[in-house]
Amino acid sequence: MNTFIALIGVILFIGGFVLLALKKNNKVFFNGQIPIIAAGFVLFIAAQCFTIIPTGYTGVRVILGQVQDRASNNGLCWKIPFVENIKLVNNKQQDIEFGNKIWGETSDRTVISYSGVTVTYSISGEKSSWIYSHVSNYKDSLVSTTLVSSAIKTASKTLTDVDATNRGKMEPLAQETIQKSLDNKYGNGVITINKVIIDNADFEDSYNEAIAAKQQAQLEYEQQQITNQKNVETAKAEAEAKKIAAQGEADANAILASSLSEDIFRQMIIEKWNGVLPLVTGDKDTIIDLGALTGSGKEQ
């Protein structure tokens, strides 16, 4: 707004002198040139007496090149014209993207890379004057690539291969490590790291190939274990079935044996006899072939 007011003041100031020159040449008959020149001058000076600080910013006062310790909050801010300047410092959340890969190592000494790293940070309003006066080119160098790379390498060094690729563990740890690095560099409470996002974490190609081979071997091993377990279960089932069958048969024989009396056994012998007399008789020392004596052996 003050720029617009200053522009109007310049236009009125110059316009007043133009009208004054035309009057001297008798080309216009207007007598208000002096008030116009005065109004233009007043508006131009008034535009230098204030500035408007937007929401989310603070104004750093610089008087004759000297940065004041206390910054001004957002809103209308009065200043000494031509002597005092107000420099805006952004206190909103800001993102810095690091496009290049950041290489590091895990606790297992495995080389790993992180890409698509985005750091979200904000500058404390109370520290705006300090940042402006102590950090050269603070907009580009406040959260530097070197600092972020070093912090991420430090974080990955404390994690195993599995955890180093887990964003849920790596991102909070990277945020904590970057915050500590900034606190050590600028002091506590100057810059706040709000979030760290890592799009991708990957190992070297050789390591990925080794992991793939290991996973394939593990998969084959697990499949073989399943097959072996099935075979064991099948064998156990078959053995159990045979055991049950044998037990059943033994139980049946026991029941049958316990139920056979001498009369029943004699009756079974009679039922099985085909009417033919024994062909031999005698004891263990003498055996007589009855068939040879009776001739029945030849008939058969």
Automatic annotation (TrEMBL):
Signal peptide start-end: none
Coiled coil regions in record: 200-227
Keywords tagged on the record: Coiled coil, Membrane, Transmembrane, Transmembrane helix
TM region positions: 6-22, 34-53
Record keyword Coiled coil present: yes
Lineage top rank: taxon: Bacteria
Boundaries of every Band domain copy: 48-215
InterPro entries: Band_7, Band_7/SPFH_dom_sf
PANTHER family documented for this protein: MODULATOR OF FTSH PROTEASE HFLC (PTHR42911), PROHIBITIN FAMILY PROTEIN (PTHR42911:SF2)
Full protein name: SPFH/Band 7/PHB domain protein
Organism: Eshraghiella crossota DSM 2876
